[in-house]
Amino acid sequence: MKPSPFPTIFSITEDEIDLNTLLDKITLTSTGAAAIFTGMVRGKTSRTGKAQGIKYAPHETTYLEYEAYKPMAEEKMLQVAKEIREKWGVVEGIAIVQRIGKLYPRTPTVLIACTASHRDTGVFEAARYGIDRLKEIVPVWKKEIMPDGEEWVEGEYIPTEK
Amino acid sequence: MKPSPFPTIFSITEDEIDLNTLLDKITLTSTGAAAIFTGMVRGKTSRTGKAQGIKYAPHETTYLEYEAYKPMAEEKMLQVAKEIREKWGVVEGIAIVQRIGKLYPRTPTVLIACTASHRDTGVFEAARYGIDRLKEIVPVWKKEIMPDGEEWVEGEYIPTEK
Amino acid sequence: MNKINILFFATMRTRAKRSSLELEIKSDTNVAELKEIITAKIPALEASLHHTLVSINREYAFDEDIIPENAEIALFPPVSGG
Amino acid sequence: MNKINILFFATMRTRAKRSSLELEIKSDTNVAELKEIITAKIPALEASLHHTLVSINREYAFDEDIIPENAEIALFPPVSGG
After folding, report:
1. C66 has pLDDT over 80
2. Whether pLDDT at C3 is above 90
3. What ipTM did this prediction achieve?
C-alpha cells in the first residue's frame, strides 16, 4: 500500500492548542479550504442535558479536569482520521488535538480540522463527523468542578466494535 | 432595540489572519463550540472550473492579488453576520475577515467563524452559509497571476436585492 | 444638476484605465441612463457594462433606481473574494 | 497462567481507589469472567461494572473476547472528551 501523501496530525497534549500552526501543517499546495471545529470549556451551561443518565440543570463550571488513556486515545484518533478518509476521499490534511489537564472556561480543549481543495467537497461534513466520532470512541474523560462540588462527566456511547 | 450581547468581528486587512486571536474574541463564558472556515490560495488547481463564464483547466497559480471596495465590503460583512443571526439565533460570536493584497499559495485569505454553546445548534451550517454568502455579496476581487499570464477572476452571482 | 463620484474596481478599473470619475448628471437620472452616460465618456467599458454590478452609496442598485444627490456610485464585476 | 495488567480510568479509578492492578489469570479467560475476578478483588467496582467499557491492548473488547497473553486491559466509563 502506498503511504498517503496527505498529513494526519494528532496529539493528546497539556499545551495550548495553536490553531495557526495546526492549520499550516495540514495546508498543501493544492489546499483551498479548511473546516475547523474547536470545543471549549463552558463557564455557564444554560441548556439542560444528561450525564451518567441523569438530567442536569443549568449550572456554572469552575473548571474541568481532563484525563486520557493516552496510547489508546492516540490510536483511536488515527482511527477517526482513517474513517474520515474512507468517507471523504477528497480530504487532504487532518488535525486532531485533545488538550488535557486542568482547563478553565473559554479555553479550547479539542480541535479537529480537515482541509480540501474546495469548500464544496464535504470538508465541513468531514469535520463534523470527526468531532462526533471523537466524542464517541477516544478514551478521554473530564471531571467537572463546580462552585458546590465536583462530578465525573460520563458519555452515552457504548462501542459495539473495535 | 437592545444591542446584541454577542460580538461580531469583521475586517478587510493586509495583515496575517490570526485564528487564535479571532477565536478568543468570539468565545464567551457560555461558548462551548466553534465552527471555523478558512480559504487559502491554491498553488495547484486540478479540478476544472469556470471563471468569467469560461471553463478553465487544471493550472498553477503563482500568487493572487486581492482588491476590495473596502467600506462597502465591511457593510456587506455585517449584512452576512445579520443574516446568520436571523437564521441561527443560537450563534453567539461571529468573526469575518478578508485578507487583501498579494497572497501566495498556502496563505489563508478569508476566515469565517461562528461560536455557540453546543456543536449541534447549527453552528457548522451557520459557518457554511456565511462563507457562501461572503463569496456572493462582499465586493472583493482577485487577479490570478500564473506562470504564463494573469487574469481577473470574476464570480457568477448577480445580486437581485440590496 | 447632481454631482456624483463613480468608482471602478477590478476589470472595470482595468478597462476604464482609471479608478474613479466625477460627473454632473441631471436629477432623476436612473442607473440604466447613467450606464449610457458612462459609456459615452469611456467607450472601453461598453462591452462589459451588461454584466457590471452597480452600487449606490454602498448598496447594490438596479437599472430603474434613481441616483440620489452626491451619490457614491461603484461599478464592478461579480465578486470573487474568499 | 497469564499475567495481565489492568488500568482504571475516571470513575473506575476513583471507585477502585487505584489506577492499576496486576493479575494472574487462567489462559482462555474471557472478558465477562475477568470482570467477575476483578469484582471479587475490588468489590467497590461491582455496581459500575455493568456499564464499564473494556479494552484489550488498546482496542474495545466485549464479554466473549478471550484475554491474550500479557494483555494490557483497561476499564473505564463511556468516554466524555472533547
Report:
1. yes
2. yes
3. 0.95
Domain that holds residue C39: 2-76
Say whether residue B157 is in contact with chain C using an 8 A CB cutoff.
yes
Q: C49 is written with which cell numbers?
A: 457594462
pLDDT in tens, D14-52: 999 999 999 999 999 999 999 999 999 999 999 888 889
Q: In terms of C-beta density within 10 A (0-12 exposed, 13-18 middle, 19 or more buried), how is residue C66 classed? A: middle
Q: Is B162 near chain C, with CB under 8 Å?
A: yes
**Per-residue cell: B11:** 475586517
Please state, in angstroms and as integers, the Cα–Cα distance from residue A81 to each residue in A18, A34, A74, A99, A110, following that order: 19, 15, 11, 17, 15
Q: Residue C12 forms beta bridges with which residues?
A: none
Q: At what angle do helices B70-87 and B123-137 cross, to 10 degrees?
A: 150
The Cα–Cα gap between C52 and C74 comes to 10
Considering only residues 7 to 36 of chain A, which have any Cβ-Cβ distance to chain B shorter than 8 Å? 18-20, 23-24, 27-36
Strands, E assignment, A7-58: 8-13, 33-40, 44-45, 49-51, 54-56
Query: What would the grid cell of residue A150 be?
Result: 465536583
The answer for residues whose C-beta is within 8 angstroms of residue A27's C-beta and 6 or more apart is A34, A93, A115, B40, B106, B108
CB B40 within 8 A of CB B142: no
Q: Do B154 and C14 touch (CB under 8 A)?
A: no
Domain ranges (residues) in chain B = 8-149
Do D51 and A158 make contact, defined as CB atoms within 8 angstroms?
yes
For A9, C60, D40, D46, D48, the CA distances from D16, given in Å and listed in that order, are: 34, 68, 12, 10, 11
The CATH number for C60's domain is 3.10.20.30
**CB nearest to A155's CB, from D7, D61, D78:** D78
Mapped to the 3 state alphabet, what secondary structure does chain B carry?
CCCCCCCEEEEEECCCCCHHHHHHHCCCCCCCEEEEEEEECCCEECCCEEECCEEECCEECCEEEEEECHHHHHHHHHHHHHHHHHHCCCCCCEEEEEECEEECCCCEEEEEEEEECCHHHCHHHHHHHHHHHHHHHCCEEEEEEECCEEEEECCCCCCCCC
* Separation of CA B50 from chain center: 20
Nearest to A39 among B33, B47, B108 (CB): B33
User: Model's pTM, two decimal places?
Assistant: 0.95
CATH architecture of the domain formed by B8-149: Alpha-Beta Complex (3.90)
Domain assignment of residue C82, yes or no: no
Count of domains observed in chain D: 1
Grid cell for residue A27: 495546508
The 10s digit of each residue's pLDDT in B85-133 is 999 999 999 999 999 999 999 999 999 999 999 999 999 999 999 999 9
Whether residue C67 lies inside any domain: the answer is yes
- Report whether pLDDT(C14) > 80: yes
